[in-house]
Amino acid sequence: MKPPLLPLSSKRSVSAGRVTGDFNGNLKVYVALKPCDMRKSFNGLSEIARHTIGIDPASGAAFLFTNKRRNLIKILYFDKTGYWCVAKRLERGTFSRPEDIEEGREKLILRPTALAVLTDGIDLRDGRRRPWYGSPLFPKKSYDA
């Protein structure tokens, strides 16, 4: 028996191996600036969103958390039916983050396009692909030159 097809009007899709959910240009992405215990999942990350970032996790915004080494991120998102918790761990390198963040600041707000750029291996500080980045479709080039 074939699985049912999603209606054409569905915004949910799987593209290039990633789930895009209902992410659109209006989505707010809050980044927790303090490193997080990555053993946390739905409930623990929801508490950080609520108490540290100060935003209701069921507000429709996405929340990005990172570990101390910045080689792992988790994204928490509520889509009106339940929570998504998506993780990405880098095999090499680190995720970039702007370095000129004010002291004592708890959160940073990203646009959805900046989130896509960040997860695709582009450095948010200068817009260049990180030297560690590579994929099977686009082999790594030598960065020694």
Describe the structure.
The structure is a single chain. This protein is of the alpha+beta class and 145 residues long. The chain has a domain at 27-119. Helices cover 14% and strands 21% of the residues. It contains two helices and seven strands. It has helices at 42-53, 112-119; strands at residues 14-15, 18-19, 29-32, 62-66, 72-78, 83-89, 107-110. The protein has a five-stranded mixed beta sheet. It has a two-stranded antiparallel ribbon with strand order 1-2. A hairpin with a 2-residue loop joins β1 (14-15) and β2 (18-19). The longest helix is centred in the first third of the chain and has 12 residues, at 42-53. The chain is globular, with a radius of gyration of 17 Å. Residues 2-21 have low confidence and may be disordered. It comes from Haloferula chungangensis.
Main sheet overview: 5 strands, mixed
- Beta-strand share of residues: 15-25%
SSE string, helix = H, strand = E? EEEHEEEEH
Radius of gyration computed on alpha carbons: 17 Å
The level of helicity is: 10-25%
Based on secondary structure, the structural category is: alpha+beta
Low-confidence spans: pLDDT under 50, at least 5 residues?
A: 2-21
> Taking all residues together, what is the mean pLDDT?
76
Number of helices: 2
Count of beta strands = 7
End-to-end separation: 55 Å
Shape: globular
Strand order of the largest sheet: 6-5-4-3-7
List keywords for this structure.
five-stranded mixed beta sheet; 7 strands; disordered N terminus; 14% helix; alpha+beta; two-stranded antiparallel sheet; 145 residues; 21% strand
